[in-house]
């Protein structure tokens, strides 16, 4: 279910991006997609700053 939701966000943001002749979707295309899907965009900043969030950090490739 989560994978389907994330895939749909990506496809829709890409569609908005291509419609305006861009190659990569900016944050505004992603927010527009979320609003069209029924998310309340006003709550996103507070959600992103919550104290118990999990952050996944990309590891740097070692040169060994």
Automatic annotation (TrEMBL):
GO molecular function, one term: protein heterodimerization activity
Subcellular location: Nucleus
GO CC terms: transcription factor TFIID complex
Principal place of residence: nucleus
Keywords linked to the UniProt accession: Nucleus, Transcription, Transcription regulation
GO biological process, any: transcription initiation at RNA polymerase II promoter
Domain Bromodomain associated residue range list: 1-42
InterPro entries associated with the record: BTP, Histone-fold, TAF8
One Pfam family per UniProt: Bromo_TP
Gene3D superfamilies, per the entry: Histone, subunit A (1.10.20.10)
Nucleus keyword on record: yes
Protein name per its UniProtKB record: Bromodomain associated domain-containing protein
